[in-house]
Amino acid sequence: MSLMEEVIAAVDEMPPFPQVVHKAMQVLSEPEYEVSSLVDILKVDQAVTANILKLCNSAYFGLPRKVSSLKEAVVYLGADQLRQLLLSGAASKIYEKPNEGYAVFADELWRHALATAVMAQVLRRHLRLKIDENMIFTAALLHDVGKVVLSAFVSDKYRAIEPLVESGERSFQEAEKEILGFDHAEIGAKIAEKWDFPPAIIAAIAFHHEPFRSPKEFRLLAELVALANNLAVMVGYGTGVDGLACRGHGLLLEKLKLGERDMEELLLLFQIEMEKTCDIAGVGNG
Amino acid sequence: MSLVTVGIADLKVSNNPEDTLVTYSLGSCIGLTIYDPMAKVGGMLHYMLPDSSINQEKAEKNPAMFANKGIPLLFKQCYKLGADKKRMIIKVAGGSQIMDAAGTFNIGKRNYAILRKIFWKNNVMVDGEDIGGNCNRTMYMQIGDGRTNLKISKRGMVEI
């Protein structure tokens, strides 16, 4: 079996993306969705229902009385919180596998994925980008999903990859591609395809290290995920063995004429938002 | 020994010789440790931005996020535990950059530059540092003896 065939076999073995979350996202993407149709989808999954009620009744929201109906909780939390809860719940399970190929510390891939998603949301709001919030959060959260499959392969070839990165001329992703013949972005797109995600999300995952290669109609999302990834890595959220050896894609900043101070303010807003998210998701900050 | 985690945009001080302060994954952020070997008091700061003038209101609530607010606060908190400025041993790490020829993402460089400026104005000497490049660093400081170690991607453990 060739290396690529081995990787494709590993992709095929990935568990499916939870259907409940898929269906709920479709409803949540409508500007005026029916609460009852959302409840009908969610109530099928007991674990999801329990998590929604748990979040709603958590100290974070400090409600004066206990909420025990799913419908009430869905209304109270609203689209943004629900989206974050459902997608994060699904993604954290996917990323929790051991990642000996990339990670230095446990749960690093997951923390990086979450930070990238929060960063992408902050960028969208602050820059007033007209892209669907579901798309952004999903694409940013899943951009590194290829690493889950490639981890073992990168670990095997690390001795060949490392000197290329050490020379300072190649990013980790470029070295990975040179040694393996493909990279985690390409494999991540294959996983998203298997999971039936829309083409825009597949493209954002495929091109998060090379947004300029994305088909034009999906380029804005790919540029946004690339920038959010850059900033999350830069701040140090979940950088593994690859460290900061990734190429900067500041095109979006240049296009929007954002300077140093704007970027600093974005990072400030991000950090405040990230601390909140870590509180809710029970992830350590730092 | 107990590990005390210093988060991003956070600072901790201690005079418990059993404590080891740690901050994970310094990228463009700066990790700063100060230690008085006589008083056996030390502190660690992990700041992410150079200057709080971008948003004064938020800076009031998050002083450890900024060099210009966090550095003075770190010293003050160590003084409260009996540390003396003249005896302080100062170690600095972080300030990495992603690969970016255009210099758009040069916050690491600016985070380090402002530290040098603040120290120069206040007559503070740096005793050891490991700055820049495109690696990430985890920083440890033992309160018992002030030893500061870095775990660096690709380079393993080093003492500064």
Question: How would you briefly describe this protein structure?
Answer:
The complex is a heterodimer of chains A (286) and B (160). Chain A has 286 residues and is mostly helical.
Q: What is the count of β-strands of chain A?
A: 0
CATH topology of chain A: Hypothetical protein af1432
The helix/strand series of chain A, from N terminus to C terminus, equals: HHHHHHHHHHHHHH
For CATH, the homologous superfamily of chain A is named as Hypothetical protein af1432
Task: Explain this structure.
The complex is a heterodimer of chains A (about 290) and B (about 160). Chain A has helices at about 5-15, 20-30, 35-40, 45-55, 70-95, 110-125, 135-140, 145-165, 170-180, 185-195, 200-205, 220-235, 250-255, 260-280. Chain A has about 290 residues and is mostly helical. Chain A has a single domain (about 5-280), classed as Orthogonal Bundle (Hypothetical protein af1432), CATH 1.10.3210. Chain A is globular, with a radius of gyration of 19 Å. The model of chain A has no long low-confidence stretch (mean pLDDT about 90). Helices cover about 20% and strands about 35% of the residues of chain B. Chain B has three helices and ten strands. Chain B has one domain (about 1-160): 60s Ribosomal Protein L30, Chain: A (2-Layer Sandwich). The longest helix of chain B is centred in the last third of the chain and has 15 residues, at about 105-120. Classes of the chains: A mainly alpha (about 290), B alpha+beta (about 160). The interface of A and B includes residues 233, 241, 244 and 254 of A.
What labels would you give this structure?
heterodimer; A: 286 residues; mainly alpha; Hypothetical protein af1432; 66% helix; globular; B: 160 residues; alpha+beta; 60s Ribosomal Protein L30, Chain: A; five-stranded mixed β-sheet; 3 helices; 10 strands
Please render the helix and strand layout as text.
The complex is a heterodimer of chains A (286) and B (160).
Chain A (H helix, E strand, L loop, with lengths): L2 H11 L5 H10 L6 H8 L3 H11 L13 H26 L12 H20 L5 H10 L2 H22 L5 H9 L3 H11 L4 H8 L12 H17 L15 H5 L4 H22 L5
Helix pairs in contact in A: 1-10, 2-3, 2-5, 3-5, 4-5, 5-6, 5-7, 6-7, 6-12, 6-14, 7-11, 7-12, 8-9, 8-10, 10-11, 11-12
Chain B lengths: L1 E4 L4 E5 L4 E8 L3 E7 L4 E7 L8 H6 L5 H14 L8 E6 L12 H15 L6 E4 L5 E6 L5 E5 L3 E4 L1
Parallel strand pairs in B: 1-3, 6-7
Antiparallel strand pairs in B: 2-5, 3-8, 4-5, 4-6, 8-9, 9-10
